[in-house]
Amino acid sequence: MRATGAAVEGAAGSRRAEGAAALAIAQARRWYWQRISAMVLAICVLAHLAVILYAVRGGLSAAEILGRTRGNWAFAAFYTVFVVASAVHVPVGIANIAREWAGVGERAGVWLGRAVALLVLAMGLRAVVAVVA
Amino acid sequence: MKAIAGAIRRSDARAHRHASWWAFALHRGSGLALAVFLPLHFWALGQALHGDAALDGFLRFADRPLFKLAEWGLVVLLALHMAGGVRLLLIEFGPWSGLRKDWIAGAAGVAVLAGVAFALALVA
Amino acid sequence: MADALTVRVWRGKREGGFSRYQVPRLASQTVLDVVTHIQRHLEPSLSYRFACRVGMCGSCAMTVNGVARWTCRTHVAKVVGSNGELEIAPLANLPVIKDLATDMREFFDKWARGKGRFHGSRTRHDAFATVQPTSPERVAADAGIECIGCGVCYASCDVVAWRPEFLGPAALNRSWTLVNDVRDVQQSERLRAVAGDAGCHACHTQGSCTERCPKQIAPTLGIAGLKRRVARAAVRGELKP
């Protein structure tokens, strides 16, 4: 009887440990993917700042912008990378702010992050298609 | 524990008077502003799906001082967030060199540089 | 130099407020001297903690003019306002027992939750473990072992205020020293304990802990190290029980 009790407790204990491990692994992944996306974005942002400084000279016009982007596959590739990296990077910070300053709970925070990721990805890729296609 | 102990006091602004805290506040603030701006930016560009005229319509609408000021602000915040982020990457992955306050100053410098460059490009 | 200090001291239990006292100003006076004067001559019912009064034990940590410090090591001359004003309150982020004394149980419980306790595998019958003092792990551990649990870092950290379950800089620093202890055999369990939103991943590198630590320990460094170690273990499948 005591042996079974100990076995049950042992099983519950190892389930807890497995649960803790799964959470730790998920959190570690969120952390390093956010850092990897940050490194990618650092490069993308530098390039984008250069593009901005070039593009705003003499004012912005659709003809000028689209003249550069339409059919430009290098542009499309670069900005797709930019969008995907943003979709990875932005949600973590937003979820943190929501959890720490807006009282959002843990599970809700995870879902908020996913929603933000989807929003950025969908709207970003739409924007890339809009100016390249 | 709750029965015997009283309220928990929180730090106020006086505890935040150090460079590294300001770096955090600006990093978070700039990140939030950029995150709010991003869908708007994507929406504006997405206007091209409705034809060149649709995008042009938006650009002409945005061709006013308040918008240009906002754009300038966003460029500055973008540069600030990026430079501050590089500082964080150095702290987390690089050899330990304290809180890298030289990088805080550097990030501010990069932001100012970007702001000046953008303002010049606008009036060029 | 004014003759007297106007000192506002936090008084209360469940509810509280600041009481004002006039304290004679002396040369080389510390904030602990001020608190002691008030309790001995002006307000016998004032509750506060101190022990060594020479900057070794960390018991006298309080919030002075909004900043967590060791009161025995804080010269009045350094912190007094231009009109001779001083504000003394208990440490932030901890429940107040009475006046300037806080309940530190949660602070130390978090050390245990972060697995801040050594677990070895050798017995007295085994030979001593050999640890090179100059090895990178030992150097990293040595940089953090001087912590005496004063709570200044914990009181200075905003993430502790924003996330009640966050282990905090001291507990994470202690875990970091043990993560770098090559004799310890509970590393997998420890990394699991320090990962997540209650652990190292919630640190936003505000650096208040490193800025304020009276022993010049840098929990920011240790926490960054924990982030890297946890990531490495996660990738290598070493976090599984």
Description:
The complex is a heterotrimer of chains A (133), B (124) and C (241). By secondary structure, chain A is mostly helical. Chain A has four helices and no strands. Helix content of chain A is 89%, strand content 0%. In chain A, helix 1 crosses helix 3 (73-101). The model of chain A has no long low-confidence stretch (mean pLDDT 90). The mean pLDDT of chain B is 91. Chain C has 241 residues and is an alpha+beta fold. Chain C folds into two domains: 4-102, Beta-grasp domain (Ubiquitin-like (UB roll), Roll), CATH 3.10.20; 105-235, Alpha-helical ferredoxin (Fumarate Reductase Iron-sulfur Protein, Chain B, domain 2, Orthogonal Bundle). Chain C contains ten helices and seven strands. In chain C, the strands form two sheets. A five-stranded mixed sheet of chain C has the order 2-1-5-3-4. A two-stranded antiparallel sheet of chain C has the order 6-7. In chain C, helix 3 packs parallel to helix 7, helix 4 (136-142) runs antiparallel to helix 7 and helix 7 (169-179) runs antiparallel to helix 8. Chain C is elongated, with a radius of gyration of 21 Å.
In short:
Chain A has 133 residues and is mainly alpha-helical. Chain A has four helices and no strands. Chain B has 124 residues and is mainly α.
